[in-house]
C-alpha cells in the first residue's frame, strides 16, 4: 500500500528522541499513506513506544519533524494533536469507571458532535465493535479486554482521520483479539491506522504492512510475508519470540 500515487498523510523526517546518552529514536524517516494500516514491531527497547509517544505529543522530540497533512505536530500537546483529527489510545486506559460503556462512548463523541449526532455515533460504534451487550455495564466492572474494546469505541467515536493504537490487543482473550482484528481490517482503507503491537499472531490476523524497528531505527518495511521470511528479522525479533506471545 506504499504506492507513490497515494498521498502521504503522516511523515516524519529525521525524527530523533534522546534520553541523556540513549538515542531511543534515531533519525527515523517514516511515511504513512492515507487509508493505510501499519503495524510497528521490534524487539524490547527498539524504540517503538518512544516513536509512538513523539507522534502523540506525550514526548517532545529532540530533533526532526512530524508532518500530518500540512501541519507540524512536533512539540504540540496531545490535546492539540487530538483536535487535528488524530485518535489516540495509549497503553494507560482512559475510561470513566463509574459510567456505563454507552455513556463513555457518547461523552467522547460529544466532544466534537451535537447531542443527536453523538447518540447516532454511539450506536454505530457499539455495532461496529460488537459491544452492544456491554452498553449498560459500568466500565469499572468490565474485564480488561472488554475495557480495551470500549476504549477503542471511544477513540473511534471522535471520527479521527488517523488512529494511533499502542498494544491494543494486550490482555485480550483470543475471542476479543479476533473481534479487534476484524474491526481493524474493516477500518483499514477508510481510516488510517498505526498500531504498535507485540503479538505476531495478531499481526498475521490483520495482515498489515509492517515497519520493523531495531535500535531506534527503521530496520525494514514490508508486508507480513516479506517480514516473516526475512532472516535477519527472525534473528533480531522472531527468534526470541517465535510465536510473538510477548
Ligand atoms: N523516559 C525514558 N527515560 C530514559 N530512557 C528511556 C525512556 N523511555 C524509553 N527509554 C529507553 O529508550 C529505549 C527505547 O525504549 P522504548 O520504550 O521506546 O522501546 P520499545 O520498542 O517500546 O520496547 P518494548 O517492546 O519493551 O515496549 C530503551 O533503551 C529505553 O530504556
Ligand atoms: Mg514499548
Please mark out the parts with pLDDT under 50 across 5 or more consecutive residues, or reply none. 241-246
Question: What is the mean pLDDT?
Answer: 90
CATH level 1 name: Alpha Beta
CATH architecture label name? 3-Layer(aba) Sandwich
- General form: globular
* CATH fold label: Rossmann fold
Brief summary:
This protein has helices at 48-56, 78-83, 101-110, 115-128, 144-157, 174-187, 200-206, 224-229, 231-238; strands at residues 8-19, 22-33, 37-41, 63-68, 71-72, 86-89, 162-166, 192-196, 209-214, 217-223. It is of the alpha/beta class.
How does this model look, in words?
- 36% of the residues lie in helices and 26% in strands.
- The protein is α/β, with parallel strands linked by helices.
- The chain has one domain: Rossmann fold (3-Layer(aba) Sandwich).
- The strands form 2 sheets. A 6-stranded mixed β-sheet has the order 6-7-8-3-9-10, with helices on both faces. Strands 2-1-4-5 form a 4-stranded antiparallel β-sheet, with helices on one face.
- The longest helix has 14 residues, at 115-128.
- Residues 48-49 line the site of magnesium ion.
